[in-house]
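Hi, here's the filled form for the chain we discussed.

Project: internal
Contact: R.S.
Residues: 79
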Amino acid sequence: MSNTDSQPRKKDGQFTTRMSLEDVLAGMTVYEPYTASELGDKLGLPRTTTNYYLNQLHNQGEVQKKKFHATRVVWMKTP
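And the returned structure, exactly as it came back:
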């Protein structure tokens, strides 16, 4: 069973949220780069869910991202 298969779902098939944006942000160290997979492993979340949260935090100005390859992005929490 994959990590995403073990996540609880709502009746419409969407995953239920077990973490807030603040929980995700608290799991990051200032200026420490993370991939969505690395942070997801640390927080116990699927990569896709973690990426969704990170994009929301980026839109709020809480984290920075740097794309260093066509398929690789690193995320950093800034003070």
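Let me know if anything looks off before we file it.
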